Amino acid sequence: MSEVKRNALTKLPKIQFGLWFALALTVVSCGTEYTPKPKGYNRIDLPAQTYQPLKEAHPYTFEFSSHAKIRPDSSLIAQPHWINILYPRLGANVQLTYKDLQGNDKMLNSLIEDARKLTGKHQIKAYSIEETEVKTPTGAVASVFELEGEVPSQFQFYVTDSTKHFLRGALYFRTATQNDSLAPVIEFVKRDVIHLLNTLKWQKGK
User: Fold this and answer.
1) Residues 6+ apart with CB under 8 A from 149
2) Residue 36 DSSP symbol
3) What would the pLDDT profile of 51-87 be if each residue is shown by its tens digit?
4) Which residues contact 141 (CB under 8 A, 6 or more apart)?
5) Cβ(142)–Cβ(149) under 8 Å?
6) Which of 131, 61, 125 has its CA nearest to residue 96?
């Protein structure tokens, strides 16, 4: 037998063993139960919460985040003193709408009903809506709504002195990111809104 054939026959069992070993690994791997890794989210670095006074002339004043900007509402339905508190870095926006009650109880009741309806529209996707009524340091009464689930607005409120002023706010994000990953940012802006309510004052003569 030639030397070439003898070497080929010698290598053949080694090749067969390698094939059987690879096949065995495939069978074992197919039988192993796959355990998915938990979903991870990108880290969000939030700035320190500092505040500044509202300088624009409105019937109300408050302190808002130093990391936010005030912009007038430019929508077609916007009315005087409707503004947006924009967070450019966070992609968040707190929309504020204002109404002069002029001592009209019917208008007050209608605005409260509308505010509740707007919050209720999120019930389809929200698995929890929690309402809390609080009184601000200046004596105004505020109703705060916290919504959980994949909803477009996670935090809403309205505050009034029941005779002249009615202010409503709603938090929105300009992103399709799931709320689970936005949770730290949502909590960050919530604290800012609570600070807004605690520092809210109605301007006399306006």
Assistant:
1) 122, 125, 126, 127, 128, 179
2) P
3) 999 999 999 999 999 999 999 999 999 999 999 999 9
4) 133, 134, 135, 159, 160, 161, 162
5) no
6) 61
What tokens does 190 get?
A: 């919530």
Contact predicate 150/179, CB 8 Å: yes
User: Cα separation of 142 and 44, whole Å?
Assistant: 30
Query: Tens digit of pLDDT for each residue in 108-154?
Result: 999 999 998 888 765 556 666 788 998 888 888 899 998 777 777 78
Per-residue pLDDT tens for 10-33? Answer: 444 444 545 444 444 444 444 444
Pair 154, 147: CB distance under 8 Å: yes
- Burial of residue 73 (CB within 10 Å: 0-12, 13-18, 19+) is middle
Pairwise CA distance, residues 186 & 153, whole Å: 10
> Contact 170/153 with Cβ under 8 angstroms?
yes
Q: Which amino acid is at 162?
A: S
User: CB neighbours (10 Å) of residue 174?
Assistant: 11
